[in-house]
Protein: Cytochrome P450
Amino acid sequence: MNILQVFQSVSLATIAILVFSSLFLYLLSKRKQKHLLPPSPPSLPVVGHLHHLGPLIHQSFHNLSTRYGPLIYLRLGSIPCVVVSTPELASDFLKTNDLAFGSRTQSLAIKHITYGVAFAFARSGPYWSFIKKMATVEFLGNQNLDHFLPIRSLEIQELLRTLMEKAKLQESVNLTQELFKLTNNVICQMLTGMRCLGAKSEADEVKNLVREITKIFGEFNVSDFIWFCKNIDFKGFKTRYTETHERYDALIEKIISEREIKRRRETLKEESLGRDCLDILLDILEDGKAEIKITKDHIKALILDFFIAGTDTVATAIEWTLAELIKNPNVLKEAQREIDQVIGDDRLVEESDSPKLPYMHAIIKESLRLHPPIPMVNRQSIENVTIHGYDIPAGTMLFVNTWSIGRNPEYWENPLEFNPCRFLEGSTIDVIGQNYRFLPFGTGRRMCPGIKFSMRELQVVVARLVQCFEWNVKEALNMDEQPGLAVPMAEDLVCFPSVRGNIQKMITSS
Ligand code: HEM
Structure:
C-alpha cells in the first residue's frame, strides 16, 4: 500500500497533530540514542525508512545493501530492523547468535488469525521446543511421511491425468492453480484427513481460507509499523482479517468436534503410526501427563500454521522450477535424458528414485537458489547483542536476505544463469542449512521442519512433469515476482503440455 494513499484516508488535522508529536518523540529518542548502530540510509520522521521499500521487500533490501553495505540498520516506522546480505554475516547472526535471534515478529493480522499462539512465530521456549520436536520427529518425520506416501502418489496421479486430458485436447493448463490444488490437497489430508472434492465441501472451504489467509499474511499493513495507526482500519484490512478468522474458527471447530466424536467411537488412539496431525494434537490435549499442556486454541493455530507453511511454499517452488526448465530447454533435455536412462519408459519416477537422479536434485537446488520461496530468513532478537562492534537492541527484526546472497557474483559464478551443474561435480552444498551461501529452508534451531517433506514432494512432482510431458508456452515467460508470503511468479504459469512416449499407459497403470 502506498503511504500517501494511506494518509489520504485519515483526516488531515489528526495527521498533523500526530506527525508533530511523533517528530518531537523521534528527535527526543535520537538525542537519547547512545548505541552504535550499523550504517543506515537517510530516514524520515515517523515513517523512518519505509519510503525506501517497494512491494517486493527483499528486492528493496537488496538495492539498499548494494549502496549502504551488507549490514544495514533500518527503522520501519517505529520498528528497528537489521538487514544482512552476506553468508559470513548470516553465520554471525544465525549461528553465533542463534539464541539471541530466537523469536519472530508477527503482524497484527497474524496474531489475530492464529489466536495469538502461532508456533512459527512463537518465542523459543518450552512450548516452541515441544511442538518443534512433535513436528520434526512425529508429524513430518520419516515414518509418517512414508505412511502418507499413497496420498501424495494419488494426488500427483490426479494432476498427471488432468494434464494428459489437456494435452489430448491441445488446451492450455494453468499450472499455478493446479499446483496449488495439489499441495493443498496433500497437506489437507495429512493435517485433517479431508480431501478437496471439487464440490462445496469443508475441504473446499479450507482451500479458499488458506488462499485468503496466505494473502492476508503477505500483505503490508501500515498499522504494524506506525504506532499511532495501530487502531485504524486502513482499507478495511482489519475487518477482512477479523472476518476471515471467524470463518476459519467456525470451520475448524466443526472439524475438531467431528473428530472427537469419531475418536470416542473408534478408539483411534491405539494406532501409533500414520496419524494425521489433528490426531497427534488431540492425543496431546487429552494426555493428562503430557510434558506441555495445550488448549484447543493451540490446536487450531497449529493446524493453520502448517496449512499456510505447507501449501504455497511447495507450489511456488515447483512453479519456478518448471518455468526455469521451459526457459532453459537444454537443461530440460538433460533432465529427461537422465530419467529415461535411469527409470526407462515403463514406469513413473517414484520418491525412492531420488538418490539415483542427481541431475534432478541439482535442478531443484538451483531453482531454490534463484527463487527461494521464502526470500528472507526473518527473526527477532530477544536480548541486546553486539555484533561486529554494532549494538543491536532487543526487539530488533532481522532479515537475512537469502534471495540476495543467492544472486551475489562474489559467491556464485554467473549468478543469474540457471546452471544446475554448479551443484554437481564435487559440490557439497545441500539444503540443510549448513552452508550460509544457500539457506532456502533457514538454519539452526528455527530451521524449517517441513524440509524432508518438501524435498520429497518437490523432486517427485518435478521429475514426473519432466518425464511425462514436453512443455510449450505461447509467449516468452515473464520471470518477475509477485509479493506474498511465499514469492510466486508475477503471472500464473500457463502452458501447453504434450505427452511424451508411453505416458498414457504409465499413468493408468500406476
Ligand atoms: C519449499 C518449501 C518450503 C520452504 C522453502 C520453506 C522455508 C522456510 C524458511 C526459510 C523458514 C524459516 C527458517 C528459519 O528461520 O531459519 C521456515 C520455517 C518454517 N516452516 Fe517451512 N518451508 C517450506 C515448506 C514447509 C512445509 C511443507 C511445512 C509444514 C508442513 C513448513 C513449516 C514451517 C514451520 C512450522 C516453520 C517455523 C519453524 C520454527 O519457527 O521453528 N515449511 N520454512
